[in-house]
């Protein structure tokens, strides 16, 4: 009877060893675990995806097709008074049908990608599709300092800072 009893003891010992090693593995070997408390990354919108694409493939960039509310082409950009400027003024080409419009930027080491955006009025009522232009200021996190300003919609260089 020693054989079966010895076999049960070995099995029991093996189970205890496996359970203990699993507990040690789950506990991180006794070290405190770092937990990332930052919010999960938010989904990129059309402009952010386009800006990343331009930064990756600059200067070989093709224009986007069609009108997209998040990527309105810019008519131009005014040269700042000096390279330390932390804002640029762009001319947004938008529709008279837009209830709101504006511009925004994405900064990278050698580029500042900018775009116009517009939010359409409700579909009710009359509205002409005539182009309107307005100047909008885009605030930068850092100075322009020689960076190239690129229109996200067309992929064209607007100015060299």
Would you write up a description of this structure?
A hairpin with an 8-residue loop joins strand 1 and strand 2. This protein has a four-stranded mixed β-sheet with strand order 3-4-6-7, with helices on one face. Strands 1-2-5 form a three-stranded antiparallel β-sheet, with no helix packed on it. The chain is built from two helices and seven strands; from the N terminus they run H-H-E-E-E-E-E-E-E. It is 23% helix and 32% strand. The radius of gyration is 29 Å and the shape is extended. About 5% of the residues have low confidence. The protein is of the alpha+beta class and 161 residues long.
Main features:
three-stranded antiparallel sheet; four-stranded mixed sheet; 23% helix; 161 residues; 2 helices; extended; alpha+beta; 7 strands
Summed up:
By secondary structure, the chain is of the alpha+beta class. It is built from two helices and seven strands.
